[in-house]
Amino acid sequence: MRKQFFGVVACALVALGVVCVSTRPSVVAQESGKAAKVEKGEGAKKAAKSGDRLPANYTKIGISEEQRKKIYEIQNSYDVQIAALQRQLADLRAKETAEVEAVLTPEQKKALQAANDESKKKAAEKKKASEKEKGSDKGEK
Length: 141
Fold this sequence. Notes:
141 residues; 2 strands; 4 helices; mainly alpha
């Protein structure tokens, strides 16, 4: 059992490393927000993902259009694997949370729920105040 647990933890760490090392935006977000865009090239219309992005600083080193397309193809070839690892990581986190919460007493679970609700409420208020502040800044210009 202990060996299996460490195997799962090792897989989770590897998956987390892949996600953290990636310089691209979240694939999960890309998967849900993908829309085809039309590129102009050699008279033929080609669909590309709206999430296609070059890694940091690649635009500063003179990437040709051909190199750009090859980079996008490479990135796109990894999207499915990365998305699967992210889903696996999310599943592991959910399982971990459930197991940790199973250790708590009913009173502790209620207290935790109340604390979580309070945190969400404060975060929402902070976000609302921030948006309101941004809105007033735009109105002053």
